[in-house]
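Re: weekly structure request thread

Next one in the queue (224 aa):
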Amino acid sequence: MNAAVIPVRSTTGAKQRLGQRLDPSRREALALAMLDDMLAALVGSRALDLPAVVSSDPVLLERARSRGVLALDERQLQGKALGLNGAVAWAAEQLEQRGATRLLAIPGDVPLLRSSEIDELFELDSPLRSVLLVRSESPGGTNGLLLSPPTVMQPRFEGESLAAHVNACEQEQLPCTVLDLAGFALDLDQPEDLETMLDAAEDLRTTRLLRHWFAGDLRNSTAA
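Done, posted below.
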């Protein structure tokens, strides 16, 4: 069974690095729009059997449920703070118990995610590739981690995560492949990423929201 999980933190205080361009209410709206676009990509994947979100935010969890996506509630852990990697590791255990044999983990700020590229990942030969890594266009980042089985290794997102994942595979003698996929490349985290989204050809909730807010004004402010 093929599963995927998006770890998402609370929308409250989301995307602090975008504070130069977006006030808190708009950052929260942006986080929800990105999640909606990513959930649509998961649900639209032909290869994916079990899409999931892991979070402690009840609003985000209900949003996932309303779209037919499994909501894994970190609050079950009685207030224990997992962090991003802990949340993905816990979700991997939960999904493996539900029968998942492969797990794709994607950070919650990859709004250009495409169903077809999710299918492409799962169509690769799993017996030969215990770990598939999808590179972020941000230097050193990982925007997709496909594990076979889901608990074959601990995730190492954040920071120089690509090198950390590759090094872990070498140490644990796990077959590892690094891929570049266009829909996985952008993680919307910096002010300049907003302009990239405005230029994207895709008609997504995220792009519509940004264009509604300030298509022309944003270009002027980033050029200043």
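The CA atoms of residues 67 and 215 lie 29 Å apart. The first strand starts at residue 2 and ends at 7.
Next request, please.
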